[in-house]
Design brief:
alpha/beta; Ribosomal Protein L4, Chain: A; 2 domains; 6-stranded mixed beta sheet; 6 strands
């Protein structure tokens, strides 16, 4: 497969032929969808919360006597059946939405995502990241304002710090690829030998 190779200044040099085993595998869309559901579910926070009858102020006195009024018996105005009462079976704020994905499924989903996005894969020979503005200049040449994922052979703190204020850029090393970031990026940029390492690591 031919992949565009860029110099460290962001200029296109050549179209290089790569022999990558993972890019010849079939795409399993159902598995990709499952991986996305798991990943988004694990990001979800239990922010919704309702009050049960014990948490609502008032309602300590019995609203009317038990018999003789013709009304249904009730012990509190905070009864869930009353307006202003507690909520039955509402969200508690402590729900756990975490899901698990077996390792083999995770590996297959990432490979499928890479195959689906293989037309958007490019390689840059090296990249010098010192400040955010330097990173921004290089990414402007490579992708403009589009979303991009930079995959490094090894990720250092300087790459994380330089990229975190760029809303259209995400960085990771080849071991920590995930399906959502791969599909979300308009261009996947492998730095140095990260592409070969990705093929070796995820192709097992």
């Amino acid at each position: 497969m031919k992949i565009a190779v860029f110099s460290k200044s962001g200029q296109k040099k050549e179209e290089k032929d790569f022999k990558l085993a993972i890019l010849d595998e079939p795409v399993n869309l159902a598995l990709v969808h499952e991986a996305i559901v798991v990943q988004l579910s694990n990001r979800r926070l239990a922010s919704a919360k309702t009050k049960i009858r014990a948490e609502i102020a008032g309602g300590g006195r019995k609203p009317h006597r038990q018999k003789g009024t013709g009304r249904a018996r009730s012990g509190s105005i905070r009864n869930p059946l009353w307006r202003g009462g507690g909520v039955i079976f509402g969200p508690t704020g402590e729900q756990n939405f975490n899901k698990n994905l077996p390792k083999k499924k995770k590996r297959a989903a990432i490979v499928s995502a890479l195959v689906a996005k293989k037309a958007d894969i490019v390689q840059i020979e090296s990249i010098t990241v010192e400040k955010t503005k330097n990173f921004a200049k290089i990414t402007e040449k490579l992708v403009g304002q589009a979303k991009a994922l930079f995959v490094f052979p090894s990720l250092a703190e300087k790459e994380i710090l330089a990229s975190r204020n760029l809303s259209n850029i995400k960085v990771c090393d080849y071991r920590n690829l995930n399906v959502f970031n791969l599909l979300d990026a308009k261009r996947i940029i492998f730095v140095g030998d990260a592409l070969e390492k990705t093929d070796e690591f995820w192709g097992k």
